[in-house]
From TrEMBL:
SMART domains for this protein: DeoC (SM01133)
Gene: deoC
Top-level taxon: Bacteria
Predominant localisation class: cytoplasm
Protein name: Deoxyribose-phosphate aldolase
EC class: lyase
Active site: D88 (proton donor/acceptor), K150 (schiff-base intermediate with acetaldehyde), K179 (proton donor/acceptor)
Catalysed transformations (reactions): 2-deoxy-D-ribose 5-phosphate = D-glyceraldehyde 3-phosphate + acetaldehyde
Top-level taxonomy: Bacteria, Pseudomonadati, Aquificota, Aquificia, Aquificales
Biochemical pathway: Carbohydrate degradation; 2-deoxy-D-ribose 1-phosphate degradation; D-glyceraldehyde 3-phosphate and acetaldehyde from 2-deoxy-alpha-D-ribose 1-phosphate: step 2/2
Length: 213
């Protein structure tokens, strides 16, 4: 299986430098990786370095999702102005777990209204959610018009699991795509998730996965 074109390569660690970004983007272009995922500060530079040969994805309210609705909308708009093609948006997990479902729904719909025409992925952080909460989070993403639901930021106690990916694919019923992310370190893992129905893989281990480390 050619997994290269399904990978969103993450360059999100706070210690990573401009030199790291330049190196990673160069290697991603050579390997035919789908996208590079960066923090908002680096979106403009990543867009310049990619030269249209690689999609640029910006994370929004990463990694905890605890910015306000207004702050998230502004972050999203600025990232798009700077050249981002896609947005990986962290759901307000604390509000969601507090039962503030209406607020979370309004936040996602506000982001959705202001970013139409772009690919939006909602990071629901499955490690913190019950079975019913995962179902509800997916429905909120669908209602907001997002294109993907994404398992994890990579900062929670656990990342993507086969159980969660299978559940999200089943619940999606073709209405939304699934991005498996968090803890994916081998080609075998990535291939399993893709065969289960995931349509994108998020990882910072791209080069070892593709045997180019």
């Amino acid at each position: 299986m050619d997994i290269n074109s399904y990978i969103d390569h993450s360059v999100l660690k706070p210690s990573q430098t401009l030199r790291d970004l330049e190196e990673h983007i160069g290697r991603c272009i050579e390997l035919g990786v789908y996208a590079v995922c960066v923090n908002p500060f680096w979106v403009k530079k990543a867009t310049e370095l990619s030269g249209g040969k690689l999609k640029v994805c910006s994370v929004i309210s990463f990694p905890f999702g605890l910015d306000t609705k207004e702050q998230k909308v502004l972050q999203a708009l600025r990232a798009l102005e700077d050249g981002a093609h896609e947005l990986d948006i962290v759901m307000n997990i604390s509000a969601f777990k507090s039962g503030l479902t209406k607020y979370v729904a309004e936040e996602l719909k506000a982001i959705g209204r202001h970013t139409k025409g772009y690919t939006r992925k909602l990071i629901i952080e499955t490690a913190y959610l019950s079975h019913e909460e995962k179902k509800l989070a997916l429905e909120l993403a669908v209602d907001a018009g997002f294109e993907f639901v994404k398992t994890s930021t990579g900062y929670a106690p656990a990342g993507a699991s086969e159980e969660d990916v299978k559940l999200l694919v089943e619940l999606s019923k073709g209405r939304i795509k699934v991005k498996a992310s968090g803890g994916i370190r081998t080609a075998e893992q990535a291939e399993r998730f893709l065969k289960m129905g995931a349509e994108r893989i998020g990882t910072s281990h791209t080069f070892s996965i593709l045997k180019r480390e």
